[in-house]
Design goal:
By secondary structure, the protein is of the alpha+beta class. It has one domain: DNA primase, PRIM domain. It is about 35% helix and about 20% strand. It contains nine helices and twelve strands. Strands 6, 7, 8, 9, 10, 11 and 12 form a seven-stranded mixed sheet that branches. Helix 1 packs antiparallel against helix 2 and helix 4 packs across helix 5. It is globular and about 55 Å long.
């Protein structure tokens, strides 16, 4: 994976920087496992550039700095959802995490993609320009960037973002239930009568096992999320933006680092999200 990272990151460094600059970043450094150097890896999360005389957050503000870390065995980059010294998020991120019962189905990934597309379409209808991103593992996230100027007078912007997530999930669930007949024919072992398909309840993991969690837990001070184009240190897959029209057809193989390089233009275009106003329909109901 380190060899792949050294070949891959020079191509994507420029596209990653907007998601890394001016914010604290955790970089995951990997080495061969001590017990089994062929099959296992040891991972170290590097959160500080230096510790003395006081801890200083690791920041990445140039391509050279990013590539220097890659050549020091860092392959995964996880920035905060807010900039350094700023007490509000500038990324609005909805992380779709399928429960354990969903993942038992051979159609689990197709179900996640379907819900991701429905969420992306819902945000578009609410006037929000968003970016869908493969997590690098088994799920998707939907990202947006809001102008917070209207929100600051309403209190804690992090809480407002979390409340918006819960409200959006409720509308998403109504949207999915309206399509119940078609969904049960596509996903008969996942979709069932009288059961919700999504939830925004982060706690009670066993109860949400048959659902997809619309996770808001990164929307907090020092909340973090894997950067677009970063390599997931556990899977070796890239966390790449995916155009909405390609979500349903996306295959895991497209996230192989060397394949991403070949199709980089498509993913770079999908990664461009513009700052927009938060959805007024949601805010009026909070």
């Amino acid at each position: 994976m380190v060899w792949l990272a050294k070949k891959y990151y020079p191509y994507v460094a420029r596209s990653m920087l907007p998601f890394l600059k001016n914010r604290a970043v955790s970089a995951v450094k990997i080495f061969s496992g001590k017990r089994d150097p062929v099959r296992d890896i040891t991972s170290i999360f590097v959160r500080y550039a230096k510790y003395k005389p006081k801890p200083v957050f690791l920041t990445i503000d140039s391509e050279d700095q990013l590539l220097s870390l890659v050549f020091d065995h860092c392959i995964d980059f996880i920035p905060y959802v807010h900039k350094i010294g700023v007490d509000e998020p500038d990324f609005f991120i909805l992380d779709l995490d399928a429960g354990s019962e969903v993942m038992k189905s051979p159609m689990a990934f197709d179900f996640i993609k379907y819900v991701t597309l429905e969420l992306s379409n819902l945000l578009t209808e609410l006037g929000v320009e968003s970016m869908a991103k493969f997590s690098g593992s088994r799920g998707f996230q939907v990202w947006a960037s809001f102008d917070n100027s209207e929100l600051r007078s309403k209190g804690d912007v992090f809480k407002i973002y979390r409340d918006m997530t819960i409200a959006i999930q409720s509308i998403l669930e109504e949207r999915l239930q309206d399509k119940f007949d078609s969904m049960i024919s596509m996903f008969p072992d996942i979709v069932h009568h009288g059961r919700k398909m999504t939830t925004s309840t982060v706690a009670h993991k066993k109860k949400r096992a048959p659902q997809i969690l619309v996770d808001w837990s990164s929307l907090k001070p020092m909340g973090d999320i894997r950067a677009p184009f970063s390599i997931h240190y556990k899977t070796g897959l890239t966390s790449i933006p995916v155009p909405s029209k390609k979500i349903l057809h996306f295959k895991i193989e497209e996230a192989y680092p060397l394949r991403v390089i070949k199709n980089l233009g498509v993913h770079e275009k999908a990664a461009k999200i513009k700052k927009c106003n938060p959805p007024k329909l949601i805010l009026s109901g909070l």
